[in-house]
Amino acid sequence: MATVDLDALIGALYAHAWPFLRITGLLLVAPVFSAALVPRSAKMVLAITLAVAIAPTVPPAPALEPLSALALLTAVQQLLIGVAIGFAVQVVFDALLLAGQVIALTAGLGFATLVDPSRGVTTPVVGQLYIIVGLLMFLAVDGHLLLLQVLADSFLWMPPGPAGIDSVSLATLVAWGGRIFEAGIVIALPAVVGLLVLNIALGVISRAAPQLNLFSVGFPLGMLFGFLMLVLSLPALQGSFERLLADALDVAARAAGAP
Question: Which of 7, 19, 112, 230 has the greatest number of beta carbons closer than 10 A?
Fold first, then answer.
């Protein structure tokens, strides 16, 4: 009669459970993977597949009693590490969304909204355009593979155990979250400055010709000029996105314990 080695079974379970939890945390918040359009069953299959692939390279975890407080703390730490890595990269796309919203409001296009299928919220169409372009660039530069590489390396920098993200890493993530506003304004700045110049010109015209109905002329002119500035500023978006993505991956690595 075959016997089951309970210790070996628990060891194998731990060897795959810790990577699975960290990968699940990443898939909850990381761009592309966390999209609402991706079925939950597909995310589960992806998490299990990645856990099986990464588990042989993960350093052995300390032996813990199942369902103990220390095991629960370790599980929470693994989830937090995965969430931290995904959050660092998600900030890039939030900055793109903010840039699109700023341009839309400045150009008078804020009323044109659309339901974001990946988030389930209503956002301006210009913000959706920036998100779509950002996702295409993210996939074009293999950003998803670089993100998974950081995840795989994180097991070497910060092996599974009760010790996880410390206060320094949390402070780094909080400071990085503030880059949403800085990066969003920088990306939107060319279009916003162009629209500001147009508004100043319209103000001068209104002083020179008070009888001109600026509302009927300035509103459509602002929209057309906004579209023009949007088209002209898109080529510069690639450089800004790549620099921001590189910074995001660096922050993700430092949050995961990179030396």
Answer: 19
